[in-house]
Amino acid sequence: MHELIRANDPVLLSFAESLMKDAGIHCFIADQGMSVLEGSLGMLPRRLLVDEDMADRARRILIDAGLGGELREKK
Predict the structure, then answer these.
(1) Alpha helices in the chain (DSSP H)
(2) Is the CB of residue 13 less than 8 Å from the CB of residue 29?
């Protein structure tokens, strides 16, 4: 899977996840369970992951939605 966003902001991640679902792109928010270790303080970032073959399309959707500044560097 390809990491698109790494953030502590649950609203941002929820919005990005919603955009992916609306576009029919399977995505996964990784590291959500880490809140147990950190005491639910939101200090550890979560990661939005998509399938490699959908990464370019997902990236374009996020840019079009104004989230281009949140994207991880393209590898």
Answers:
(1) 10-22, 35-38, 55-64
(2) yes
Compute the C-alpha angle 19/38/74, nearest 5°: 40
Domains present along the chain, CATH in parentheses = 1-30+44-74 (3.30.70.790)
> How far is the C-alpha of 65 from the C-alpha of 75, rounded, in Å?
21
CB 25 within 8 A of CB 50: yes
Q: Mean pLDDT for each 10-residue chunk of the chain (75 residues)?
A: 94 97 97 67 85 97 97 86
Closest CA to 4 of 22, 28, 23: 28
Distance CA 49, CA 26 (A): 9
Find the length of the chain: 75
Q: How far is 29 from 13, CA to CA, in rounded Å?
A: 8
